[in-house]
Amino acid sequence: MTKNKALYAWFNEGEIPFYRASSVPDDVIMPYGTYEYIESAFDAGEVGLTANLFFRTESEAIPDEAAQELSKRIGYGGVTIPCDEGYIWLKRGSPFAQSVVYEEDPAIKRRYINITAEYLTFS
């Protein structure tokens, strides 16, 4: 499985559908998530990925719980995702989750998530 497909599959294992940030459908319905696809290889070190969770709700607890669930899936030591030629090691970035406010529509709740990825692959 390519790196791109491996990340897509991992993000979509949860209950909220995820899309690459560059290809969110026009008719998407909240809740949903996005992630940045940044590719690297073994000798490049860690790279930062961002994910975003979007909800339409009056509750802050619902998006907070979704961010916590993503944190649990990554775990304290990170999680490795198998892909062609090796693995992608995802770890929680710092800060892990931040709230983003939309002044024009306070019912939209967004969580900006920092993730670190280390590509343990040859290419």
Mean pLDDT: 94
User: In the CATH hierarchy, what is the architecture at level 2?
Assistant: 2-Layer Sandwich
Strand content: 35-45%
Q: What would you call the shape?
A: globular
Q: How far do the termini sit from each other?
A: 13 Å
Order of helices and strands: HEEEHEEE
- Residue windows where pLDDT falls under 50 for at least 5 positions: none
The CATH topology: STM4215-like
Q: How many structural domains are formed by the residues? A: 1
Q: Helix/strand/pairing class, anyone? A: alpha+beta
Task: Summarize the biggest pleated sheet.
Answer: 6 strands, mixed
| Helix coverage percent | 10-25%
Strand order across the biggest sheet? 1-2-3-6-5-4
Radius of gyration: 15 Å
Features:
123 residues, alpha+beta, STM4215-like, six-stranded mixed β-sheet, 2 helices, 6 strands, 19% helix, 43% strand
3D architecture notes:
The protein has 123 residues and is an alpha+beta fold. The chain has one domain (3-121): STM4215-like (2-Layer Sandwich), CATH 3.30.2000.20. The chain is 19% helix and 43% strand. It has 2 helices and 6 strands; from the N terminus they run αβββαβββ. It has helices at residues 3-11, 61-74, and strands at 18-20, 32-35, 46-56, 79-83, 86-101, 108-121. The protein has a 6-stranded mixed sheet with strand order 1-2-3-6-5-4. β5 (86-101) and β6 form a beta hairpin. The relative contact order is 0.24. The model has no long low-confidence stretch (mean pLDDT 94).
